[in-house]
C-alpha cells in the first residue's frame, strides 16, 4: 500500500516530503476498552488510521505512507530487517523524499534503530517512533510521538545526525538509546550521555551532535545471509551448557552479557575461550544498564581473543557483530577496531 496524503494549497506543496513506514507495534495496537493498556493486540491499526488521528501532520509535511509490516516487535526477524533497510535506502535515494519516519514496537526498537544507524546510506533524516499505550487507550501517547517524529524528519537540523528516535518530546541517537521501563510513557533513555535534543510544539532543538561514524560513513550493508550470533549471560552458578550447544550448532559469534564490567564466571569464561579458539567471535558486554566495558578490565581479552563491546548493550553488540561478520571481519583485533569505531 502506498497512500499519498496531499493538500491543494500552495503552502502545502512547499512542505518537506516524508515517507512514513509502519511496521506495527503498540502504537498500532488496540484493546477492548480505553482503560486497558496491557491486554491489547499490537499491530492491528493500519497506517492510514494512525495518520488520520493526527490531522496536524498536514501542516508539517507531505506524507507518503506505506504499511511495511503489522507485527508485535517482539517478533522482529532478520528478514524484515533486510526489507526495512532496503526500503529506507530506496526511498532516501529518491529526490521525492526528504526524510523517513518508521513506526515500530518498543520491545526491539533499539535494535532496529541501531541496525539502520549502521546500514542506511543517506544523510537524510530517519526517525523512529513508537508508543507505550495502544491507540485505543486513554491519553494514548502514539499520536504526539508520531507528530514529533515527522517534525524531526522534516527538519534540516536532523540532517547528518544518523538514525534518531523521537519519543516523549526527546530526540535520541539510535546508538545510545535503550528502553528502560516496562510501562512508563518516558520509557526510552540514553543512560550514559543523555538525549541529543528535544522536539515540542513544532520546534526542533539539538544540544549535541553524534560523534561516532554512522550511515554513509560505515561499510555495512544488508542482503547477504545473516551470520548466526547469539547472546549468553553470566550469573551465579552458570554452566557451560548453552555455549557448548551453540558452538556445536555452528554459531558464528557469541555476545556475553557479563556482570559488572563485563566480568564472566570462570566456568563460562573457559567455555567461551574454547569457542574463541575454534574461531567463534566472542564479544564481552554487560548486563548492567549503563557504563562501558573496559578492554582487559574484567577478562584477559588479549590472551583469550575476546572483544569488548564498549558502551553497547548485549543486544546492540549482537547487531554490530552480525554486520561485521557479514562484511568479512572476523579476526578479534579487527573486530575490536569495529567496536571502537561504531
Automatic annotation (TrEMBL):
TM region(s), chain numbering: none
The keyword Hydrolase belongs to this UniProt entry's keyword annotation: yes
Catalytic residue positions: 26, 106
Entry-linked Gene3D superfamilies: 3.40.50.40, L-asparaginase, N-terminal domain
Keywords: Hydrolase
Metal-binding listed as a keyword: no
Domain Asparaginase/glutaminase C-terminal: 228-339
Residue ranges constituting the L-asparaginase N-terminal domain according to the UniProt record: 17-210
Entry-linked NCBIfam families: asnASE_II (TIGR00520)
Family: Belongs to the asparaginase 1 family.
Record-given protein name: Asparaginase
Lineage: Bacteria, Pseudomonadati, Pseudomonadota, Betaproteobacteria, Burkholderiales
Amino acid at each position: 500500500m502506498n497512500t499519498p496524503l496531499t493538500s491543494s494549497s500552495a503552502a502545502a506543496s512547499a512542505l518537506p516530503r516524508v515517507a512514513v513506514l509502519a511496521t506495527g507495534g503498540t502504537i498500532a495496537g488496540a484493546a477492548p476498552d480505553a482503560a486497558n493498556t496491557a491486554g491489547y493486540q499490537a499491530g492491528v491499526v493500519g497506517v492510514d488510521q494512525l495518520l488520520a488521528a493526527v490531522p496536524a501532520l498536514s501542516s508539517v509535511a507531505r506524507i507518503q505512507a506505506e504499511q511495511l509490516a503489522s507485527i508485535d516487535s517482539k517478533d522482529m526477524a532478520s528478514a524484515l530487517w533486510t526489507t526495512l533497510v532496503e526500503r529506507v535506502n530506496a526511498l532516501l535515494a529518491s529526490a521525492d523524499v526528504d526524510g523517513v519516519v518508521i513506526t515500530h514496537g518498543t520491545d526491539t526498537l533499539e535494535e532496529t534503530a541501531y541496525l539502520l544507524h549502521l546500514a542506511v546510506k543517506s544523510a537524510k533524516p530517519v526517525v523512529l517512533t513508537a508508543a507505550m499505550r495502544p491507540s485505543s487507550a486513554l491519553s494514548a501517547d502514539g499520536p504526539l510521538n508520531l507528530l514529533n517524529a515527522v517534525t524531526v524528519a522534516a527538519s534540516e537540523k536532523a540532517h547528518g545526525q544518523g538514525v534518531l528516535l523521537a519519543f516523549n518530546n526527546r530526540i535520541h541517537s539510535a546508538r545510545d538509546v535503550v528502553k528502560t521501563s516496562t510501562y512508563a510513557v518516558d520509557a526510552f533513555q540514553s543512560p550514559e550521555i543523555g538525549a541529543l535534543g528535544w522536539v515540542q510544539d513544532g520546534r526542533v532543538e539539538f544540544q549535541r551532535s553524534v560523534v561516532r561514524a554512522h550511515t554513509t560513513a560505515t561499510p555495512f550493508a544488508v542482503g547477504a545471509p545473516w551470520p548466526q550470533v547469539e547472546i549468553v549471560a553470566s550469573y551465579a552458578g552458570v554452566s557451560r551448557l548453552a555455549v557448548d550447544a551453540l558452538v556445536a550448532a555452528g554459531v558464528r559469534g557469541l555476545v556475553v552479557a557479563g556482570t559488572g564490567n563485563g566480568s564472566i564466571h570462570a566456568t563460562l569464561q573457559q567455555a567461551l575461550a574454547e569457542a574463541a579458539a575454534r574461531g567463534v567471535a566472542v564479544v564481552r558486554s554487560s548486563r548492567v544498564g549503563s557504563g562501558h566495558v573496559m578492554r582487559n578490565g574484567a577478562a584477559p581479552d588479549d590472551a583469550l581473543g575476546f572483544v569488548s563491546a564498549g558502551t553497547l548493550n548485549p543486544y546492540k553488540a549482537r547487531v554490530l557483530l552480525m554486520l561485521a561478520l557479514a562484511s568479512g571481519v572476523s579476526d578479534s583485533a579487527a573486530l575490536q577496531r569495529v567496536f571502537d569505531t561504531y
